[in-house]
Sequence to fold (399 residues):
Amino acid sequence: MSHLFENYSRAPVTFVSGKGCELFDAQGQAYLDFIGGIAVCALGHADPAIAQAVSRQAQSLVHVSNLFRSEVSEKLAGELCRRSGFDRAFFCNSGTEANEAAIKLARKFAFRSGSKRHVVVSCSGGFHGRTLGALAATPNEAYHEGFGPLPGGFAVTPFNDVRALDAALGPDVAAFIVEPVQGESGVHVADAAFLQAARKLCTERGILLIFDEIQCGMGRIGPTFAFEHFGVRPDIVTLAKALANGLPIGAVLTTEAIAAAFKPGDHGSTFGGSPVPCAAALAHLQQRDALGLHSQTDTMSSYFLNALRELAQEFPELFGEPRGLGLLIGLPVNEAVKASEIVDALRSDAMMLVNAAGGNTLRFAPPLIVEIAHVDKLVQALRAFAQSRVKESVAAAGQ
Ligand code: PLP
Fold:
């Protein structure tokens, strides 16, 4: 009997180790990983540079708290700011905490500016986390049920609708939070025009623009930061997931002026900026450069999307048009089949790990080191599933 809570629907498989794009169970059976710990393991599993950085750091210093300065968190903050063009970083331990910090920062910034703005607007289909503030910004009734009352001061606007956004950004709004690519909703890419309009409206009205890059940032869609792809600079960026390639960390990046809204005591975290995850994040950034992951991701993305497009054309009764950017890709599955059924079939028959996201969509977020041969194998397994489905339905029609 397991003593863990049953709040997750875990697949009936236990992994004991991993290497690159593969995971191994206790019997040594290999599985090809197209989930990457839900867009986390950008460098794959057991990356030697991450292992070495973690081991070195753990042997010298694991924790001191934020009562003291920490060399490695200062270094990571500097590196993230140098790469993003922001001035300041706040570290925490997860994505939801990064968004909590961003929401609190936006409200405090308004407060210190003498403004009464406090409302945080988010988008339909958005996902920002499970703690109460981030949950209030996540307009999904299923996630809210039984947890009320949620904190007030949140509003929702339709994703990619400029006119509705214009109406939603009223005089009481402190911040607009948006994922440049929505992951949990089934991979929906923001229109560049929507993000540009958001930038313009926020600037004109004194509203902070927050990009939640927790899933789509850290190279997932190509460049280190998703905002680089869209050419729109937000006021605040939140990061987590892939930042330390699997060690728990979250981050908020922003400007000097906005960061100054937090005075000592305003916000904090015991573990935030802890040396081991920070050392892993620094190693991850170095490896990104060393492996040329930006261009590698662009190349693999085109190959992957083309292969899925061909598959969807071959089996239009099963699959819709694939969508996504970089290596965050969604393949809509037509009503006749549940995406979760394909997830189970691929895992048990083809030893491949994929994931179902919102809107009956298969979501692929493999390690960014994924190879053409891996993509070919996956598409072949999807084709085999589709062929057996088509055969079954022909047989059923003939009866
Ligand atoms: N924001 C986005 C866009 C996410 O995809 C997630 C997690 O899936 C979160 C926030 C929450 O991150 P965490 O699970 O680390 O709290």
User: Anything to note?
Assistant: Residues 94-96, 99, 127-129, 179, 183-184, 212, 214-215, 240 surround pyridoxal-5'-phosphate (CB under 6 Å). The mean pLDDT is 97. Residues 62 and 345 are 42 Å apart (CA to CA). The first strand starts at residue 15 and ends at 19.
